[in-house]
């Protein structure tokens, strides 16, 4: 009888230890869920109110009693917390998606800027290397112009000299022509005077002849 009693007592102790372990596991599980919910609520309150995370955490811890953050969560509270957590995660995913879109746009813009920079550099190189297709012909024409200028210089001096000679000759011609005109005028005056005197003399002679009769 005593060995049976010892076995029953040992089994009872084993069951008691198993119940204690089960309670501890349940407590640890509920504590982990509580920490996750508190962390989520801190982030959610910060996002909604703009308050500092530390202040939000203090708010959650302060109201943990009134919000029933304990091992005795009701099913409705648990569902509400999970829904809020899902909403928060969806918001985070949306924000991350927007960040990726903006990053892709920036990368695309930078790519276009890089392409335009390369294109401008190519155009600049072509511009600097651009040669004059008529360079040889232009040089030849310039040489001919210089040669003609050299020939024109003595001809210009000769023209000036000839022009001076022409002016001197023209002035001498005009002077002689004026002298000729003066002489012709004097000649006409003398002829007229001679005619007048001879006519007068003839008239006197004619009168003398008439008086003799």
TrEMBL record:
Residues 1-35, 70-96 are annotated as: Disordered. Residues 1-12 have a biased composition (Basic residues). Signal peptide: none annotated. It comes from the Eukaryota. Residues 13-34 have a biased composition (Basic and acidic residues). This is RAB6-interacting golgin. It comes from Juglans regia (English walnut).
